[in-house]
Amino acid sequence: MERVSSSFGELIIEGPVPPERLAGYRLHKDLDAFRRPAEQHEALVEIAGLPEGRIVVARLDELIVGYVTFHYPDELERWSEGGMDDLIELGAVEVANDYRSLGLGKRMIRCAFAGGQLENAIVYTTEYYWHWDLEQSGLNVWEYRSMMEKLMKTVDMVWYATDDPEICSHPANCLMVRIGREVPMESIEQFDRVRFRQRFMY
Fold first, then answer.
1. What mean pLDDT is predicted for residues 97-108?
2. For residue 200, pLDDT beyond 60
3. At what angle do helices 104-113 and 141-153 cross, to 10 degrees?
4. Which residues, including other chains, have CB under 8 Å from residue 124's CB and lie 6 or more apart?
5. Pairing state of beta strands 26-27 and 2-4?
6. What is the pTM of this model?
7. 43 lies in some domain
8. CB contact at 8 A, 121 and 180
9. How far apart (Å, rounded) are the C-alpha atoms in residues 145 and 151?
10. Helix intervals (H) in 68-182
């Protein structure tokens, strides 16, 4: 847990938050990038209840003003094809508009990796420009991409190549990955096969 002083009051960064505690919080009205706040709140509680699910939040008292999600890849996506139990997706990072200058995204992601929590996992994130809040941020796609790369690099995530069609569909899209120190070589090799499907088709 980390406490952050701000003009709004003291913010708390914490996680992973158990589902029963998460259910008692409420979501800021601006956290609507993926679905309506009430529906997103339900989704966060559901993810927190999964065996591999992890939710890190930034909150002002009971009000969640930012969150980060970790979960297994969606079964409809390529990343689930390897059937890996040590491959975790860093899914959504969202911070309410008024709180974006406080470095909460960086703080939440650092909280998720603190104390060696994810050293036994390959954590990846897929960055798609159509998910980015270009209008509100005032950034162009390349500036936003640079911002997201810097954010992920705070926990040593690095750019990885892939032949995934969605990522390859626009040059600003990217795959970033962090391989934990305790991940076995066979998992790394399996992940390589998932990243480059074409390379292994003969």
1. 94
2. no
3. 40
4. 79, 87, 88, 89, 90, 160, 175, 176, 177, 178
5. unpaired
6. 0.92
7. yes
8. yes
9. 10
10. 104-113, 134-137, 141-153, 165-168
At 202 the pLDDT is: 41
What is the span of the domain harbouring residue 54? 2-197
Q: Position 104: which residue type? A: L
Domain of 9, CATH number, reads 3.40.630.30
Residue pair 55/20 in contact (Cβ under 8 Å)? The answer is no
Residue 202 lies in a domain: no
Structural domain includes residue 123? yes
**H or E stretch covering 48:** helix 37-48
pLDDT of residue 201: 45
Could you identify the residue written with the tokens 């508009």? 97
Question: For 103, phi and psi rounded to 5 degrees?
Answer: 70, 30
Average pLDDT taken over every residue of the chain: 94
**Would residue 133 count as lying in a domain?**
yes
| Residue 170 near residue 132 (C-beta atoms within 8 A) | no
Say how many Å lie between the first and final Cα of the chain, rounded.
Answer: 50
Q: Is 112 helix (H, G, I), strand (E, B) or coil?
A: helix
> How many domains does the chain contain in total?
1
Task: Measure the CA–CA gap between 50 and 175, rounded to whole angstroms.
Answer: 24
